[in-house]
Amino acid sequence: MTHEKVIAYIKKCLEEGKMAEAIDSAKVTIVPISKEELKVYIHKYLEKGWISKAVKGSKAAGIELTEKVLKEYVNRYLDEGRIYSAIEASKTFSIQLPIDKLVIIGRDCLLKGNLSSGLEAYGLIKETPPEQELMICGNRCLCEGQLSHGREAYRLANKSPPVEELIICGNKCFNVGWTTPGLEAYELAKRSPAKEMLRACAEICLIGKNIDEARKALVAAQKIDDTTGAEHIEIREISLEELNATNDLEGSWRCLVPRACEDCDNEREFKERFFILSRCPARTEEEEWLDRTMKEQYGVENYSVGVFRDNRGLIDSAVCSECGSGNIVFDS
Ligand SMILES: [Zn+2]
Asked: Considering the entire predicted model, what is its pTM?
């Protein structure tokens, strides 16, 4: 090995926290490392929270870490919410963690959505985190797309995650190519994601060479395609004459009668339009779809839906002949 290579190797060992190895190599190759330099590295390890590397290094270098210095590091870990480093250091150096600080840190971690650290801090002082803090934590986690932490936080608070938050979580997951938790979030919310979003998610997965997740997203998108195709609702406008003449409809639709205009109290004259639905909308999304389609395609904003025995539907839309309002109350 050339001199430069030796120096580079020693530096690499030091950077990686292998101080004993660096010191040994230095001895063999007669490359000097100053105590000051070693000390700087030990502090670097401590800053990074590499407790055991700092301990081993200080032993190998014959540099003593005073209790004062170590306590300062523990406090710093706590102040920065690095609870695991604080715990490891406190165990390694037998330093008591300050209870008052742990209470603040536990709360702080939870409010920031850092569930495990928060629970760890509360665990150390043997207290149960308040429900409110857990719920805030759950909300933060879900809004960041951290489904399992969010669910866990809500579970500990004895609450179920709100549907809106689950959907935000699902969307967040899909946006970064996390198909599995995204689908799970939507399933928990009992909703189905938009297929466009799933396809976009699949693309992100493919860019990240995450083939399995991409496939999962595409399969889910395909499933949505299939079901919307199979369940598609057809709307057909039908005249009153045609409706009266149709034999295959039972008479129940006749009960659907416009009674009064809510805007002018007219109870007699209405312009009616009728539409036959191949089946009645079953889900909220389908109802929303129907509302939208009726408005966009037929200019109908107010209507009432009657159901036939075979689950076909009849839309009766009425407009007041007096004032033109569509706010009509139906008898049914
Ligand atoms: Zn009217």
From this structure: 0.56
- Rg (alpha carbons) of the chain, rounded to whole number: 34
Q: Last residue of a domain, which of 74, 96, 118?
A: 96
**167 Cα: distance to centroid of ligand 1 (angstroms):** 41
Residue 309 · residue 276 · CB < 8 Å: no
Q: Residue 125 Cα, ligand 1 centroid: separation in angstroms?
A: 69
Q: Residue 129 has which token pair?
A: 């985190």
Amino acid identity of 154?
A: Y
Q: How many CB atoms lie within 10 A of CB 162?
A: 15
Q: How far is the CA of 261 from the centre of ligand 1 (A)?
A: 5
Kindly give the confidence (pLDDT) of every residue in the chain, 332 residues in length, as a single tens digit, with 9 standing for 90 and above: 678 888 999 999 999 999 999 999 988 888 888 999 999 999 999 999 999 999 999 999 999 988 889 999 998 998 887 888 988 898 888 888 888 888 888 999 999 999 998 999 899 888 899 999 999 999 999 999 999 999 999 999 999 999 999 999 999 999 999 999 999 999 999 888 988 899 999 999 999 999 999 999 999 988 876 655 445 788 999 988 888 887 666 666 677 788 999 999 899 889 999 999 988 887 777 888 889 889 888 889 888 888 877 778 889 999 999 998 988 988 86
CA of 157 to the centre of ligand 1 (A): 52
Residue 60's φ and ψ, nearest 5 degrees, are -65, -35
Q: How far is the CA of 302 from the centre of ligand 1 (A)?
A: 13
Q: Is 97 in contact with 78 (CB distance < 8 Å)? A: yes
Q: How far is the CA of 253 from the centre of ligand 1 (A)?
A: 23
Ligand 1 centroid to Cα of residue 320, in Å, is: 5
CA 15–ligand 1 middle distance (angstroms): 82
Same structural domain, 9 and 72: yes
Instruction: Please tell me the distance between residue 272's alpha carbon and the centre of ligand 1 in angstroms.
Output: 13
Judgement on whether residues 224 and 252 belong to the same structural domain of the protein: no
C-alpha 263/C-alpha 268 separation (Å) is: 13
Residue 139 placed within a domain:
yes
How many angstroms separate the alpha carbon of residue 269 from the centre of ligand 1?
9
Is position 122 within any domain? no
For residue 121, tell me if it sits in a domain.
no
CA of 246 to the centre of ligand 1 (A): 30
Host domain of residue 210: 131-230
